[in-house]
Design brief:
The chain has 13 helices and 7 strands.
Length: about 350
């Protein structure tokens, strides 16, 4: 039995938010996000309209599957024994269903992490719950440390700096010195501040680290995509912040959504439509950086996150009491390090 486990592939579970593929899927998707509570017809139509404006659907699932495929190829170089899977928190393929597939494939050791570099209990809790629920139902002995947040990863920060440099090239050369760079990430309810949650702190650390790599003198941080839940959310919102910048004489803005890694609704609508329309109303020029999506340097980032977690699993801040069992130093890891 021990030999079978030693010969089994190491599983890598990449987790993303999920996205509906058709208009008919919007309501059940929205209901799942709300924990089973049915949204109002008006709220459903509002969300459907946003998807309609970005082409009917977003490419999140296709991008995540392609990232998983390319990461598997990368990890299998030189004979590495890895299977990489993609699971969604709020839509198909659900994380629990993907974990069933992992069990069928004979996987025992798993590295699991969300495709979001920064850490907050409120944002990562759903991923952890999906994993725990699946573990309980499967009765399969996964050795499954939940990877720490990876905003500190040097390769990720280098890649983000490259994206900023590329993004600045969209402006005329004579205007680049006056471009205001705005880093952004998904807003969360203000109550996370009562938990000493590291989310804001990590975002500012990441922004400063990327800005230093690029040599930026003009940059700010703003939030985006706040929910309509009746409680205060973290701000300022990037759309509203454009008013402030305009009042300060800023005319050129580069949006850098460093809290996200792929094109989906928060990028294609909140930045490319909503923020862009506000900038045009103000007579401002706004461009954004490309998303990591399936860039080769992003695949390298993820490979390094996997390697770090295999070498020395570290408990995620969100779950400090979670017992983490370090995987043995397998032949797969030795190959990965070459």
């Amino acid at each position: 039995m021990e030999t079978m486990q030693d010969d089994a592939p190491v599983g890598v579970l990449l987790m993303a938010y999920g996205t509906p593929e058709t208009p008919d899927e919007v309501e059940p998707y929205f209901t799942h996000i709300r924990g089973g509570r049915t949204p109002s017809p008006e709220a459903v139509e509002h969300l459907k309209e946003r998807y309609r404006l970005v082409g009917g659907k977003t490419p999140l699932l296709e991008i995540t599957n392609e990232v998983a495929s390319r990461l598997q190829e990368r990890l299998r170089e030189n004979g590495g024994n890895f299977n990489v899977y993609a699971g969604m928190k709020h839509w198909h393929p659900y994380i629990g269903d993907v974990m069933e597939k992992m069990a069928v494939d004979g996987v025992h050791r798993v590295v699991a992490f969300a495709l979001a570099p920064h850490c907050s209990r409120i944002s990562l809790g759903g991923y952890r719950k999906a994993i725990d629920d699946a573990q309980g139902k499967l009765g399969h002995p996964f050795d499954l440390p939940f990877a720490k947040c990876w905003h500190h990863n040097a390769l990720w920060r280098d890649m983000m700096a490259t994206l900023v440099r590329e993004g600045l090239q969209q402006f005329p050369e004579e205007a680049r010195g006056g471009v205001m760079v705005i880093f952004s990430a998904h807003s969360l309810p203000e109550r996370i501040r009562t938990w000493d949650d590291p989310y804001e702190r990590q975002l500012l650390e990441s922004s400063a680290a990327v800005a230093e790599r690029v040599g930026l003198k003009n940059w700010h941080f703003a939030f985006q995509s706040a929910g309509n839940t009746g409680e205060p959310w973290l701000g300022p919102d990037i759309v509203d912040y454009l008013d402030t910048l305009h009042g300060e004489g800023v005319r050129d803005v580069l949006s850098v959504p460093l809290g996200f890694v792929s094109d989906h609704l928060e990028i294609l609508f909140d930045i490319d439509i909503e923020a862009q329309e506000k900038a045009k109303q103000l007579g401002m020029r706004l461009y954004r950086t490309q998303m990591p999506n399936v860039r080769p340097d992003f695949v390298e980032v993820l490979a390094s996150v996997v390697q770090e977690q295999l070498e020395a699993p570290v408990p995620c801040w969100c779950y400090p009491n979670l017992v983490q069992v370090a995987p043995s130093r397998s032949a797969a890891l030795q190959v990965l390090k070459k």
